[in-house]
Specification:
This protein has five helices and three strands, in the order ααβααββα. By secondary structure, it is of the alpha+beta class. The chain has one domain: Winged helix-like DNA-binding domain superfamily/Winged helix DNA-binding domain (Arc Repressor Mutant, subunit A), CATH 1.10.10.
Length: 113
C-alpha cells in the first residue's frame, strides 16, 4: 500500500505531457522502447530519460530480451488516474443554497429606509 506522500510524488512524476502519453500507451499493453520514439516524436535519449524516471518511482518496469527492453505498467493506481485525467466533465458543481449568487441577491446594494 502506498502512503499519501508516495501518491503525491507519483502525481508530480506523471504530470508531464510526454509521460502521460507513455502511460496511456502502456495501458494498451507492453511496448518496446523503440516503439515510443515513433509516436512521441522525441529523441531516443529523451524517451529513455522519461522511462527511467517512471521506472525509478516504480510506476513502470521492463523485461529485457537481448538488447530490447519492453516496458509495462506496474502501479495499479495509474489506470484510475489516467481515467480521471481524460474524463470529460459537463458543467460545474451546484452552488450551495447559502450562496448569494444562487439566490440572485445583489451584493453591495442597501435599501434606504
Amino acid at each position: 500500500m502506498t502512503s499519501l506522500e508516495q501518491r503525491i510524488d507519483i502525481l508530480k512524476i506523471i504530470a508531464h505531457p510526454v509521460r502521460i502519453k507513455i502511460l496511456k500507451e502502456l495501458l494498451k499493453g507492453v511496448k518496446c522502447v523503440t516503439e515510443f520514439g515513433d509516436f512521441l516524436g522525441i529523441s531516443q535519449p529523451n524517451v529513455s530519460q522519461h522511462l527511467s524516471l517512471l521506472r525509478a518511482f516504480r510506476i513502470i518496469d521492463y523485461y529485457q530480451n537481448g538488447r530490447l527492453k519492453c516496458y509495462f505498467l506496474i502501479d495499479p493506481m495509474i489506470p484510475d488516474l489516467l481515467q480521471v485525467l481524460t474524463k470529460r466533465y459537463k458543467g460545474g458543481l451546484p452552488k450551495p443554497e447559502c450562496c448569494p449568487l444562487s439566490k440572485k441577491v445583489k451584493i453591495g446594494v442597501l435599501k434606504k429606509k
